[in-house]
């Protein structure tokens, strides 16, 4: 047999069946949307992060410094009011100075793979079409330990950069745009005016749209020729066995060598920033749904308290304590919260399965086939906690009012 | 030997406010175990207020109520609720049965709230009570399927659920026809004389009140007779 308070609570809810159902539905929808949307968004976010961690170098050391170098006079009088006019910064040759030493130092550290690179712009010309691209000069034997390029090749191989003269590897997007196929000869024009006939020895697809549409790779030496920057390296790409170390390592490199070092989080800062906003929007949307559901719960229980004032009076005259009365009504909120949660779980699960069954091509930051969904019991737990906590809270207010009713007023008023 | 069941000692109850209203004033009253007392008086004389004070539903402004030789002044609301549960049975003018529950379930509510009996014992006790009030055929019915007299008898059964020594009734016959009202009063007399309970009934019906062992007449919150 059900406990007394529970059976009274259930009778009350049954009495207000339609309102109860609406509140249940509200809670269920909140829970379902939370589960569905979180699975979708976190699925996408985790997939994206996994891909950039997989594809991009974990740390990039660039030939830049974060702050302009301070002038000698400013260093001499750090607290003085120094004003410099007509200052002409020294023209420095761009590129990482002492790159070879840095390379050697970094390579000695355990769990680290480093590859030097020179990146610059290039105009590819093929069949009357011009495509502006980034060209990165790489050393294939080092590059294959640092980026995913070799595994992303749809055709051709990284070693073909060595075996073919003037070889270039291009992204799938570029190939598509200009109608270039493997083994085609294309002309490459660099900003400094070097023109080379290059042979496409490979096409890659990283599924990160920006890379597939703009990145090309050639030998480091060839890139230096194209940019007319002999022996210059402007980038060191670092890959770590332990991704978590990217932040500290980047900071350490920057401290030691002075060059700007970006861990992957910083490289993808824009996108990661969007994720934060996305999550904020998701949580506020779901909270709004739950708040509306809570108004429903508040409404049902307030109505019940109002309608059942006499019953409350008689229960109290019978010997129900304030807390017994309060418990009855809080329980009503809890029942709605819990049943709503379970229905919401089922609906959320169904929503995920439905989204999983959809098949479409999506091209945003990344290229994907259908939704990438992240299924985790955590979402079910969080949504349940939110729903049940807010339902209980919504019930608390009318429950407290019920418990404070004075039985004398009620029985006297009725008589 | 007579045993004091309930005693009001110099009880006054005022409603606070800009103009305080005195409900009852300087009530001294002793009711013995097994006594059937009727409280009468014109409306607004404080009959019901006195009953609520005796039944620990309300707290006197000054003076104190002694229940079975114990002073109840200063008891917490929870402790008073527990005393009401175990020792006092209330019957009101309106039956106040919970409409969603069957008669049987209504009578079980106080028993289950007290928790001294198991579920099956509670069921049995409620059934016996309803049987003794000739409601055996109506146990499974809901309150709105019964006549007024039947409902009031269910309410009496509920008041007796935890076998309280004290039964308090506030105009229990107010909504009943004369014949049924007499039957209900006979029932109360039975509770007092056969079952040795203390019964205090508030009524405005002088004829019914005459059937009680003792009558207390209130005017303007004071006992006058």
UniProtKB/TrEMBL annotation, chain A:
Residue stretches making up the ABC3 transporter permease C-terminal domain: 287-407
Coiled-coil positions: none
Record localization: Cell membrane
InterPro entries: ABC3_permease_C, Lipoprotein-release_system, MacB_PCD
One Gene Ontology cellular component annotation held by this UniProt entry: plasma membrane protein complex
Membrane topology: Multi-pass membrane protein
Family as reported in the entry's similarity comment: Belongs to the ABC-4 integral membrane protein family. LolC/E subfamily.
Keyword line: Cell membrane, Membrane, Transmembrane, Transmembrane helix
Chief localization: membrane
Protein's recorded name: ABC-type transport system
Listed transmembrane segments: 21-41, 280-307, 328-352, 380-397
From TrEMBL, chain B:
Superkingdom of this protein's organism: Bacteria
SMART domains linked to this entry: AAA
CDD domains linked: ABC_MJ0796_LolCDE_FtsE
Keywords associated with the record: ATP-binding, Cell inner membrane, Cell membrane, Membrane, Nucleotide-binding, Transport
A GO term, aspect molecular function: ATP hydrolysis activity
ABC transporter domain segment(s): 6-224
GO cellular component assignments: membrane protein complex; plasma membrane
Family classification: Belongs to the ABC transporter superfamily. Macrolide exporter (TC 3.A.1.122) family.
Name of the protein: Peptide ABC transporter
Organism: Paramagnetospirillum caucaseum
